[in-house]
Amino acid sequence: MGVLDGYRVIDLSIAMAGPLAAMRLGDLGADVVKVEPVTGEWQRHAPAGGATGTKVNASFLSLNRNKRSLAVNLKSEAGREIVHRLAATADVFLQNYRPGVAERLGMDHGTISGLNPSIVYVSMSGYGETGPYAARPGQDLLLQAMSGAMLSTGRQGDPPAPAGSYAIDAITAYSAFEGALAALLHRERTGEGQRVSVNMLDAAVAVQMQELSIFTVGKVPQRRGREPHGHTYIRAPYGVFATKDGYVALAMPRLDGLAVALGLPELAAMDGDADGHTRRDEITALVASRLPERTTAEWLEIFARHDLWAGPVYGYADLVADPQVERNGSFVTYEHRTEGTVTTPGFPYGLSAAPPEVRRGAPLVGEHTRELLAELGYPAERTAELVAEGVLACED
C-alpha cells in the first residue's frame, strides 16, 4: 500500500515538469489519470534524443509510469463533461496550460473547485500567471538563461553554458510535487481545498538560495575569472580538470593537503578561504598544469590518500555500471506492454513503511478510457458512441 493509495490525481499537463510532478504522486500510490488529446500528449510525438520506441517513446515512458490514460477531446461539450465528472471524484487536479487555455476549456480553478470544493488545484506556468512575461513560453533552456545561473560557471569571455540536465523543469516538478503534498496535508487537517501556484521562474530563483543571498545580502558580485571554474561563489580549485587519460573533478580541497598531493608547495602558503577567492585564477592554473602528468585513477588514489574531495567524471555508460548506483537501486527494470523490458531511473527517496513502486508502465493513448468511463457510470454503449463521435480515443 502506497502513502497516497486511495487518492486520485487528474493530470492535464504536458512536456516534462507537470508530468514528472504527477508521476511522483503516482509513485507514492495515487491513482493518476492522464487526460490527453485523442491524438496523444505532445511528448508522445517529440521524442528527446530521437528515441522513438515501439509505440511509446523513451521520453514519454520516463515521465508517465503509474498513470492511466484517458484520451478525450476537451473542445467538445461531452468531453468536458467527462473530465468534470472525473474531477468531482479527485483529490488533486494538475495543469500547465498556457494562460487563458484552462478558462476556455472549463478546466480553470473556479470551475473545478466549484465542482469539488475540497480539491487541491495545482496550476503550473513558466513565468507566473500574471505580469509582463505571463504569455512567454516556459521552456527549460530559456529559464536557465534568465535565472542567472549560467554566469556562475565557466570562464570570463566564454559563452554561458546550460546545465547537462533539464534542471529547471525538474526543479519546477519537485516544487509542484511538494506544494501538492503540503496542500493535501492542509486538507487533512482542515478539510479545505486550495489552489497551488508554481512557476518555473520562481523555482529557478528559489533553488539558488545560497548564490542569490551572497549577492543580495553579502553584496558579492557574480564574477567569472580568466580560468575555467565550477562556480563563481566557491573557492578554488573547483571544477573539472584534464588528466593524462581523461578528467577528474576537484571540489574545494584543502590547499595544504593539495600542496602535498600535487607537489606544489606554493599552495601551502595560501589561505584557502581568502586566497581561494581572490587568487582563484592563479590556483586553478597551477592545478591544471600539474594534473596531466598522471592518469585519473592515479590521481584519485592520491587524493583519497590525502582525504581530498575528488571524483571521476562519468558518462552515462559509466554511471549505469557503477557499483554504488547498482547497490542503491537507482534504476528500476520492469515489463512494459509494448516496449518489453525497460530500465529507467527510479525514485529519489526511500520510505521504510510504504516505499514507492512501479505499478504500471506509461500508458498507450487512451489505454484506460473504457475502464475510467465505466468507473464514472457510463454504459459501454454510450462510451462506444463517444468513441465513434471522436470525443474519446481508446487503445483496446
How many DSSP helices?
Answer: 18
| Order of adjacent strands in the largest pleated sheet | 6-5-4-1-2-3-12
Order of helices and strands: EHEHEHEHHEHHEHHEEHHHHHEHHEEHHE
Largest sheet: 7 strands, mixed
Strand content: 5-15%
Chain-averaged pLDDT:
96
Total beta strands = 12
What is the 3D shape? elongated
Radius of gyration, CA atoms, in whole angstroms = 25 Å
Termini Cα gap: 28 Å
Helix content: 25-40%
Q: What class do helices, strands and sheet pairing give?
A: alpha/beta
Please mark out the parts with pLDDT under 50 across 5 or more consecutive residues, or reply none: none
Q: How would you describe this structure to a colleague?
A:
One of its GO terms (molecular function) is transferase activity. It comes from Nonomuraea salmonea. Keywords: Transferase. This is CaiB/BaiF CoA transferase family protein. InterPro entries: CoA-transferase_III_domain, CoA-Trfase_fam_III, CoA-Trfase_III_dom3_sf, CoA-Trfase_III_dom_1_sf. The protein is of the alpha/beta class and about 400 residues long. Helices cover about 40% and strands about 15% of the residues. The strands form three sheets. The chain has a seven-stranded mixed beta sheet, sandwiched between helices. Strand 2 (about 30-35), helix 2 and strand 3 form a beta-alpha-beta unit. Helix 7 (about 165-190) packs across helix 8 (about 200-205). The longest helix has 24 residues, at about 165-190. The radius of gyration is 25 Å and the shape is elongated. The model has no long low-confidence stretch (mean pLDDT about 95).
